Amino acid sequence: MFEQELELVHESVEESGSYGSVMEAIDSKWIEQSLLSANKASIRNRRLPAQQAVWLVLWMGLIRNQSIKEVCSSMDIALQSGDSTWSRVAPSVLTDCRRRLGEAP
């Protein structure tokens, strides 16, 4: 049943290109709780915080026909540097972040 619901969400996102409804449906507290329960929450301020990494992984699952770089661009993920400017995320940051989160659900 969950797979059918996930497939419907995937089709809806691909057809409309709208991500807002999915982001509204997922409570950010769920993401925080999942990170805490998996011992992946970090006090350290990383270039790509774990919360953003979880959103990225969710979008990678929903937008399966795009690369991680394309998904990141569609989400407008950018990193703030020390001088308060914003820059696009380097692919290596995305790979490192995905590895930190791990494979376990």
Q: How would you describe this protein?
A:
The protein is mainly alpha-helical. The chain has one domain. It contains 6 helices and 2 strands, in the order αααααββα. It has helices at 2-16, 20-25, 28-37, 50-62, 68-75, 91-101; strands at 78-80, 86-88. Strands 1-2 form a two-stranded antiparallel sheet. Helix 3 (28-37) packs across helix 4. The protein is globular, with a radius of gyration of 14 Å. The model has no long low-confidence stretch (mean pLDDT 71).
Q: Which ranges are low-confidence, i.e. pLDDT below 50, for 5 or more consecutive residues?
A: none
Structural class: mainly alpha
| Element-level helix/strand string | HHHHHEEH
Radius of gyration using CA atoms only: 14 Å
Query: In total, how many domains does the architecture comprise?
Result: 1
The biggest sheet amounts to: 2 strands, antiparallel
In DSSP terms (H or I, runs of 4 or more residues), the helix count works out at 6
- Morphology call: globular
Summed over residues and divided by their number, the pLDDT gives a mean of 71
Strand order of the largest sheet: 1-2
Which bin fits the share of residues in helices? 55-70%
Fraction in beta strands: 5-15%
Using DSSP, what is the number of strands? Answer: 2
Intertermini distance? 18 Å
